[in-house]
Amino acid sequence: MKANLKLIVPALALSALLTGCGSMGGALAKALRKTTSDILITDRSGKAKALAAELSIQYASAEEIAETCDRIFLAVKPHMMADLLCPLQRVLQARKPLLITMAAGLTMAQIEQMAGGALPVVRIMPNTPVAVGEGMTQYCCNAQVSRQTVQEFLQDMRYSGHLDELEERLIDAASALSGCGPAYMYLFIEALADGAVACGIPRGKAMEYAAATMAGAAQMVLTTGLHPGALKDAVCSPGGSTIAGVRVLEQRGFRGAAMDCVVAAYEKNKLLGK
């Protein structure tokens, strides 16, 4: 579902991104940049300086960000989180900025503990298509987050795509689907394109056709509200080529493999928080 982002929030607070400069951090920075240029970014290696220059935003230290910004996005791996937050505990506890974490497996309570005590925390699970405004992001908030703070967070994220509030206990499962899901979709697009190339379609056209077909099929599900099985049946004429292809997918275990990849990612997410 699309979040209702009609509320107007004054652009008073700086947003910041503390990132490992990975794919997700970079994608989120691009989404936030569509809202404001008042963004600070940092990382340990200095690689984010190139991203700051590309997006015309400011590169700063983690300490400067903790002392300045009111909303801080934590785009680091779970095993790096304690090393990032523990040195900043004093200033974080003094200022109480909103911490927005996307670390798989880490609960909001764990983030508070690493930050030295009670703080407003939003836990999100975005995916890389936020960079082009077509992301799927689940979020949940702890008891320290006010209604006004939630509105400011949603304002920051308004160009990222779809947002949905979800209970924290379901975040890891959602991550296994939509957080990891783009990789599954890319693999399927590549495989479809390879099949088309084998049939004589030029590589560039095959990639375009496969990607556009997946995007269109997804939009049909979202727009019509029909079950994917019903939409699939509508394309499969009796004795036709489409059902012949579907039969091969079923014979090769496509449906079971798709289910199992989500479950495997979920089990891994649970381990990352330990």
CATH architecture of the largest domain: 3-Layer(aba) Sandwich
DSSP summary: helix tally: 13
Q: Which spans have pLDDT < 50 for at least 5 consecutive residues?
A: 1-13
Mean pLDDT across every amino acid position:
90
How many individual β-strands? 8
Number of domains: 2
Kindly provide the radius of gyration, computed on alpha-carbon positions and rounded to a whole number of angstroms: 21 Å
Within the CATH hierarchy, at the fold level, what is the topology of the largest domain?
Rossmann fold
Considering the protein shown, what is the CATH homologous superfamily of the largest domain? NAD(P)-binding Rossmann-like Domain
Class of secondary structure makeup = alpha/beta
Which strand order spans the largest sheet, edge to edge or round the barrel?
3-2-1-4-5-6-7-8
What gap, in angstroms, lies between the N and C termini? 31 Å
